[in-house]
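Sequence design from tokenized structure. All designs in this work follow the same two-part layout: the structure record, then the generated sequence. An example of the structure record is given first.
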């Protein structure tokens, strides 16, 4: 038990520190870009990134969860690890090809996308790195430092290229080009580590196994997609209804919040494999673990949210500049979102998924995110970027309520507690 806790702490703390470095590097580009590009051009960059995020989730599919589970359960079987790795990579390549066909169709058939076809295609280049970087493999092996190495490489390369190439608002298309180059190089490093550091051998993908991964990973893909659908779609709807400047105001606040939210991601990633194994071994042991870990994570997120809410005016003025002051109310609402985001991870991924309640988890997620989508259509026309933020926060709060009601009514906690008697 102590060795498990030590490993979790080591994984979380090392990734946490390196993730802070990563996002510090990434954030360094934001003040520069918002001032050089201005709200409208920066908004175009954010809109293109939001569109491509749909396809990032497509190529990640359910592998971030399903692949992690498969690797975690076969950590000491190198032959099986090699087979799982190559079958997952084959699936990701197939999905990447499907995504590229879809994006080509969109840039021909949708006027707004056709006008910025080159920007969108360059932004799609991030998908190459997303396919190649085997973060799911590292998580399953509980070797989080390799994820951090890849992230630091991506962000450092991206920042360097931004400062070297983006000089005026006309250079906005060079932003995704820098991302494409950095992600691809980091992806190549990621593939190298799998063979050189973990000793995997090339295994020809088996079609039936690739299909099995797609079939069994679908529920995780659907969950991840619906979980983030409202968040992504907020930006896209905002771009079509309120214009590029509104996207710039909303997107810049979201960038700041994403950097803060990333402080929680290493903790979630480190906890999940242990939560899964503990839940399978002993419900009572899992309850003791998640009670301590969950309380700490939620309390930490509440403190972060409060700090951001109080100092949002100062933060926007310092990081983004006077031209982006409309981002202040957006950032305050996103601070509230941060708290519910952490709470929902504990009740959702760390609880329902670990006890094989995937179907219920998916249905609850879909319900909350569809509510968020409806609110986006209702609030954005009236309140622009503030309406987008309000819709996101409201749907996340509703999600917390849905999860809590299900956990109580299903008797899940009662069963866990009874097992410890």
């Amino acid at each position: 038990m102590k060795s498990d806790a030590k490993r979790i702490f080591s994984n979380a703390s090392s990734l946490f520190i390196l993730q802070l470095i990563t996002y510090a590097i990434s954030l360094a580009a934001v003040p520069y870009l918002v001032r050089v590009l201005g709200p409208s051009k920066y908004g175009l960059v954010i809109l293109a990134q939001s569109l491509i995020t749909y396809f990032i989730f497509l190529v990640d599919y359910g592998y971030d969860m399903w692949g992690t589970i498969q690797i975690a359960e076969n950590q000491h079987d190198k032959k099986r690890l090699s087979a799982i790795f190559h079958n997952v990579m084959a699936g990701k390549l197939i999905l990447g090809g499907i995504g590229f066909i879809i994006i080509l169709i969109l840039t021909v058939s949708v006027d707004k996308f056709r006008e910025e076809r080159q920007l969108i295609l360059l932004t799609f280049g991030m998908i190459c790195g997303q396919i190649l970087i085997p973060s799911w493999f590292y998580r399953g092996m509980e070797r989080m430092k390799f994820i951090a190495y890849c992230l630091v490489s991506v962000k450092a390369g991206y920042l360097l290229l931004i400062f070297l190439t983006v000089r005026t608002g006309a250079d906005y298309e060079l932003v995704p080009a820098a991302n494409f180059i950095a992600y691809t190089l980091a992806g190549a490093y990621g593939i190298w580590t799998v063979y050189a550091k973990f000793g995997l051998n090339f295994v020809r993908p088996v079609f039936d196994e690739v299909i099995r991964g797609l079939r069994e990973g679908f529920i995780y893909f659907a969950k991840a997609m619906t979980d983030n659908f409202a968040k992504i779609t907020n930006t896209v709807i905002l771009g079509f209804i309120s214009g590029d400047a509104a996207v710039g105001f909303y997107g810049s606040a979201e960038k700041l919040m994403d950097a803060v939210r990333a402080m929680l991601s290493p903790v979630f990633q480190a906890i999940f494999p242990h939560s899964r194994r503990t839940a399978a071994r002993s419900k009572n042991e899992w309850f003791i673990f998640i009670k301590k870990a969950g309380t700490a994570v939620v309390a930490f997120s509440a403190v972060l949210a409060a700090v951001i809410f109080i100092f949002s005016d100062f933060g926007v003025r310092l990081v983004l500049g006077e031209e982006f002051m409309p981002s202040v109310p957006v950032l305050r609402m996103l601070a509230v979102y941060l708290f519910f985001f952490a709470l929902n991870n504990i009740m959702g991924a760390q609880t329902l998924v670990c006890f094989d309640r995937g179907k219920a988890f998916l249905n609850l997620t879909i319900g909350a995110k569809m509510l968020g989508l409806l609110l986006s259509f209702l609030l954005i026309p009236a309140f622009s970027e503030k309406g987008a933020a309000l819709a996101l926060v409201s749907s996340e709060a509703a999600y917390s309520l849905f999860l809590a009601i299900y956990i109580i009514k299903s008797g899940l906690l009662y069963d866990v507690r009874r097992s410890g008697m």
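The radius of gyration is 21 Å. We note this feature because it recurs in several other targets discussed in the main text.
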